[in-house]
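User: I've been going back and forth on whether these two constructs are worth ordering. Before I decide, could you fold them both?

Assistant: Sure. I'll take them in the order you sent them. The first construct and its structure tokens:
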Amino acid sequence: MREILCSVKGAQRDYASLRKEGIEDLLQECLIHWFFMKEQYRSESGASERTFLNRVTRNKIADLIRRRAANKRRVSYESESLDAMDDDEKMISTKERILMVEEQTTIKITAADLPEAMSKATANLSFRQKQICRYLSEGMSQVKVGDVMNIPRTTLQDEIKRIREVFRKVGLEEYLR
């Protein structure tokens, strides 16, 4: 019994997925598993009953670790009706924030503000997006830019959409035509 307890404690210490479980719960799972597996013990195999118990315990712990890791990758969602009325003002404000649509405001950029707006927009671009802007401003076609940068056409078009969105947020939408 002490060996099983040491094995469980060691596994709990070594694996983060088992740390949230109580030591008694893990020990109970291992002992229940042993209870059902003990009938499979064969003395003619050459292993002692104690060795078999340790092997069964290690296998059960490994199985628990695998199951916990698989459950960690699963995402569970609790759905809540948006039509349901809550007395809690905090919940209502959260729902309102979720349902709010970002208001698209158009900012008018003057010629004097253009350099500042351009530097603000390009600061929010990745290196690859900046390269795409440079090639397109030099007059290259999208096909040529894709060939030069060795990226698929659909990926390039997605990057251009992201660039347009960044420019739109800064108010440079009219300069993208």
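The second construct, handled the same way:
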Amino acid sequence: MFSRSFAFAFTALTALCVATAAPALASQTVSNAETAKAYRMDAARHIYASYPTKIYKGKLPPLVHAIVVLEVDVDGTGKLRNLHMIRVPTHAPDVTAAVRTMIEQTHLPAPVRMADGAKFTEVWLVDKSGRFQLDALTEGQR
């Protein structure tokens, strides 16, 4: 049982570590959003464009491997100002580390219409394969 759990954890960690490689060049570098809710959508699209191979396509299974809830605060240029991990999966610290790394490596779009930057909450839904969907753009669950 232990070796099976270890193999599963190793597979999930390996899949997420691949995600932490430098993000692909995302097309949108400026957001014209005027509200945090609209900026959250632009940021989610940007993350999807930065990590296209890590996105779970289609509806997620009924039970996901891990859920990470983040409060993200960016300045007027899209640079991460603060990251607060609201909910982390205690059973999958590797997922928490991978999500943190992806957010820290991704320069989000500059919220040019928001004077003091943007602050939003996002939920990361992570499958056991290491692929994820963001709540802002999720396709739902089966």
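Notes on the second construct follow. Helices lie at 2-19, 36-50, 93-105. Residues 2-19 form the longest helix (18 residues).
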